[in-house]
Amino acid sequence: MNTDSKNQPNLLKIGEVASVSGIPIKTIRYYDDLGLLTPDISRNKAGYRLFYQSIFNRLSFIRRSQSLGLSLKEIDNILKIYDKGEIPCGVAKEVLLEKLDNIEQQIEQLQILQSELKAILSGWQFAEKLEGNICPNIQQTHG
Fold this sequence. Notes:
The protein is mainly alpha-helical. It has helices at residues 14-21, 25-34, 55-67, 72-83, 89-122, 136-139; strands spanning 12-13, 41-43, 49-51.
């Protein structure tokens, strides 16, 4: 939607949005290029981005979602549902459940690795000569 900033005094320039939100201008442009900001942004006749006040809610959602491990693609899918006037909480919950499952699997793998490292280190011996292995302590298997 094109508009003239003189007719829309409540529209904000990208620098103002960056200053208030704490999100760098480059990042805001990137989000816009991905289509994440579409309903909260306009352009003036010169093509400059102008933002509605609602941009702060959207940027806050994006930032919080990223901090929870959601990808920009996942965030985009949730925002598209919201932009249709629907509540995206069901989809958001499914994405978070999947993230939680992945984290639990990673924790399990890290605990196995931790046990393996402890076993290697507890039986550590310094080799006095090379026996065909680079480091026998690492290359021997611990049961």
